[in-house]
Amino acid sequence: MEELNRTLFLWINATAESPQWLLTLATFIAKDLIAIVPLLIVALWLWGPRHRVTSQRELVLKTGIALIYALAISWCLGSLFPHPRPFTLNFGHQFLEHAPDYSYPSDHGTTIFTFALAFVLWHRRWSGAILMVIGVSIAWSRVFLGVHWPMDMVGGLLVGMLGCLFSQVAWQFYGTRMLNVLSQLYRTLFSFPIRKGWVRD
C-alpha cells in the first residue's frame, strides 16, 4: 500500500518543469476553495425560500454534526497512525508552505468530502456532485503541491463517510431537539435583522 501511495504521489506531484499558471491555480484551490464550506453553511441557514428554510437548517445541522464526528475520527486516526508528510521525507517537490505535522488523514479532505457526501445524502445529488468535484480538485491540488499523499485524501473520504453515518444515527436521538433549540437561539440573537427582513425567521 505504501508503495502504491508513493507511486501515485510521484505521478500527481508537480515538478520544477510544471507551468507557473498551474501552480498558481493549484495554490488557490488548495488554500482558498475550502472557504465554500462556511459560506454555504451560513447562506443556507440565513436565506432561501420560506418553505425550504426548515429543511435547509436541518441539512446545515446534520452536516455540522457529521463534520464534528469526522474531524474527531480524523484526529484519533492521526494520533494512532502518524504518517509524515512527503516533504519531511525529502520526497517529491513541495510548492506550498505547510507545518511539518502528520498528514493522515487530510483535514482538508475530511472537511470537503464530509460536506459533499452530506449534500449527496441529504440535499440534492447534483449539488453533492458539484461539491464532490470541488473535493477531488482540493485533493488533487494538495498532492500536486507536495503537502499530502494520495492516501491522505482517500482517508479523508472514508472518514467523511463515517461522519455522515454517525450523524444520521445520532439525528434519530437528538437532532430535532437540537434544531429547535438552535433555531430559538438564532431568533433571539438575530431578532433585529429578522425584523428588518435581512434574513429569514
TrEMBL record:
Q: SUPFAM superfamilies recorded for this chain?
A: Acid phosphatase/Vanadium-dependent haloperoxidase
Reactions it catalyzes? di-trans,octa-cis-undecaprenyl diphosphate + H2O = di-trans,octa-cis-undecaprenyl phosphate + phosphate + H(+)
* Transmembrane residue ranges: 20-47, 59-82, 129-147, 153-174
- GO MF annotations in UniProt: undecaprenyl-diphosphatase activity
Organism domain of life:
Bacteria
Main enzyme class: hydrolase
Is this entry keyworded Manganese?
no
Gene Ontology cellular component terms for the protein in this record = plasma membrane
Q: Name one Pfam family in it.
A: PAP2
EC number of this enzyme: 3.6.1.27
CDD domains given in the database record: PAP2_BcrC_like
Which keywords accompany this UniProt record?
Membrane, Transmembrane, Transmembrane helix
Ranges for domain Phosphatidic acid phosphatase type 2/haloperoxidase come to 63-168
Q: Does the keyword Transmembrane apply?
A: yes
* InterPro entries documented for this protein: PAP2/HPO (IPR000326), PAP2/HPO_sf (IPR036938), UPP_Pase (IPR033879)
Under what name is this protein listed?
undecaprenyl-diphosphate phosphatase
What organism is the protein native to? Winslowiella iniecta
* Source taxonomy: Bacteria, Pseudomonadati, Pseudomonadota, Gammaproteobacteria, Enterobacterales
